[in-house]
Amino acid sequence: MINILILSSIFLFFLYAFYDQFGMDYLKGKNKLKVRLKKRAKIDSLIFIGLIAIIFYQTKANIPTVTIYLLSMTIVLSIYIAFIRYPQILFKEKGFFYENIYITYDKIKAVNLADNHIIVIDLKNTKHLSIIPDNTQDIEKIVNFFGGYKK
């Protein structure tokens, strides 16, 4: 039972990774701008890897070989998600993808440049999106995409 649960989680992760890396590029029109964002979930991933290591240590002899391989695969996937993969924001013709969610431009109330190279997008539903580009030169690209600086 646990192997089926782990295997289905791995399969769902591969679907998510495929959608994240390739699927969003083809949805909702052509890309106008693609910007890599800073990684965030490194500590969470290290905690997850540590918990799996504790499971290995606690039940050395009682784990079937298939379960060991599946848990090892989850460790590899968590290393990929935290240390190899970069989150990105994709600007399209009528909206943008941020954290795999499509938001149309008409839902934007304001775009502000905050300290420490953070772009804050205020939405009309009172939510705020903090965009932290990996490369600080991408801030100019984003600002120019939204029409430049306004006073």
TrEMBL record:
This is UPF0266 membrane protein EV697_101285. InterPro entries: DUF986 (IPR009328). One of its GO terms (cellular component) is plasma membrane. The keyword Transmembrane applies. It is a multi-pass membrane protein. It comes from Bisgaardia hudsonensis. Belongs to the UPF0266 family. It is found in: Cell membrane. Keywords: Cell membrane, Membrane, Transmembrane, Transmembrane helix. The chain crosses the membrane at residues 6-22, 43-60, 66-84. It comes from the Bacteria. The keyword Membrane applies. Its main location: membrane.
